[in-house]
Amino acid sequence: MTNEQKEKIIELRKLGIGYRSIATAMNLSRDSVRNFCKSRGLEGYGKDYSKPKAEKVIREHCKNCGKRINKKPIKGRPKTYCSKECKKEWEVKHPILYQHVCYYCGKKFESKAKNADFCCHKCYIRDRFWRDEDIETVIRHLRKGILIPNAPGWVKDLIAGRECRQSGEKLEESI
Fold first, then answer.
1. Beta bridge partners of 130
2. How many structural domains comprise the chain?
3. Who has greater pLDDT, 54 or 48?
4. Are residues 19 and 34 in the same domain?
5. pTM of the prediction?
6. Is the pLDDT of residue 166 over 50?
7. What Å distances lie between residue 36 and 12, 28, 33, 62, 162, CA to CA?
């Protein structure tokens, strides 16, 4: 392999071109191109070299209290907070709230959880343990053609003929 070929391989590799494409273009074997790139620290996927690498920002002060941290070089992930208490305090001051709709009553509510189905424990209990007297109320309302007050989501899905949330099966209009 000549010096011109070596320079061309480095140039093509930094553009994000793979070993096989470089080898085909330069009439070399893929393994010789790969071995040369490994010796120069250009191994891995070619597309990784086409993007500039972002520099790591190492936080020198605690995100919550401003106390100095990370004085010495450490292995692994650099610290963001000086202590567990500071992290908890930051999370209390800056909560991340997600928007949800209650599966039972249909009210909109906010929660710290990414996946929340119910706005309160009462709605969860009513949906989970739907009683026989509640089913009779639904049947009475259906016979009269009146909207059902506080019907759980699965009953609304059943009436509308939509798919059930848990099983993914198509529900039939049997009521």
1. none
2. 4
3. 48
4. yes
5. 0.38
6. no
7. 13, 11, 5, 44, 60
Q: Grade residue 15 by pLDDT with cuts at 50, 70 and 90.
A: confident
- For residue 86, the enclosing domain spans 55-94
Residue 115 CB neighbours (<10 A): 7
CA distance 102 to 153: 9
CB of 72 closer than 8 Å to CB of 64: no
Distance, CA of 37 to CA of 114 (rounded, Å)? 44
Place of tokens 């198509």: 170
Residue 98 phi, psi (nearest 5): -110, 145
In a shared domain, residues 7 and 26: yes
Q: What is the mean pLDDT of the chain?
A: 77
**Tokens 């989501």, residue?**
153
